[in-house]
């Protein structure tokens, strides 16, 4: 089974989300963003959660966009994306 790209833990009223692509310094790709968005929506809708903390693991919080994953994108691919909003 593959490791999740975003690990989620709940400690009382705090949801702790940890980016989990350490080999890529947690660079953001479509799959990681989709997992993160789903978890943010889930915990935002949960009245038992009072705070969401987002953190990185090992060496980095996040290196930014995963440029390697974007190398074959066209203008249409980029302009049609709706990231977290």
TrEMBL record:
InterPro entries: ClpP/crotonase-like_dom_sf (IPR029045), Enoyl-CoA_hydra/iso (IPR001753). Pfam families: ECH_1 (PF00378). It comes from the Eukaryota. CDD domains: crotonase-like. Belongs to the enoyl-CoA hydratase/isomerase family. This is Uncharacterized protein. It comes from Ixodes scapularis. The lineage of its organism: Eukaryota, Metazoa, Ecdysozoa, Arthropoda, Chelicerata.
